[in-house]
Amino acid sequence: MVKKKIKILGISGSLRPDSSASAVLGIVSKLFPANVDFKIYTGIGEIPAFDDSKEIPFPVAGFIKQIEEADGVFFCIPEYAFGVPGALKNALDWTVSGTAFSDKPVALITAASQGQKAHAALLNTLTALGTKINEDATLLISFIRSKLDENKEVVDIATLEAIKKLVESFIKSVEICGV
Ligand SMILES: Cc1cc2nc3c(=O)[nH]c(=O)nc-3n(C[C@H](O)[C@H](O)[C@H](O)COP(=O)(O)O)c2cc1C
After folding, report:
1. Rounded to the nearest whole angstrom, what is the distance from the C-alpha of residue 35 to the centroid of ligand 1?
2. Among 3.65.10.10, 3.20.20.70, 2.60.40.1120, 3.40.50.360, what is the CATH number of 6-176?
3. Single pTM value for the model
4. Vertex 102, ends 160 and 80: CA angle to 5°?
């Protein structure tokens, strides 16, 4: 019998071309087992400002569809001005009144200079959205720039091990959710 592939959607909270958070998401993408189909959502910057419009804008509908189709969602975010990057928070606000994230297994890595505040804030938002978030699937990486080399590879062994452990634990929890 052919085993079904696990679909994971990756979302970076940074739109910067040189983003450390996106680099960490790239590192994560190489750690998934072969039965994982990993896709990165790149449309956060095209989502219009949330206005509770009953007519869902096209980019928002696409965003919601990709979340619904995923077995799990993997976030990697920086911290800006003590908070979650605005574009990501705006995109998530569109999902509050729906069920796209209900019982959806999610993982969160915050990669920032410090990051505690954005990490805690996004965990609160993910709880408000009704996601399934296990502590083993969350990781705060402070001083991120000192942990990546010029090719954006992780040079800090402990950090790499922590990312590997998180990925393993997250995939197990997605499998338990009945993929
Ligand atoms: C506009 C801006 C605001 C920032 N504010 C914070 C902050 O409040 N706390 C923090 O820990 N790091 C802060 N940083 C540092 C970023 O977290 C760090 O540079 C991170 O690597 C940037 O993520 P990115 O490369 O994925 O965009 C800020 C960086 C920028 C560009």
Report:
1. 33
2. 3.40.50.360
3. 0.97
4. 50
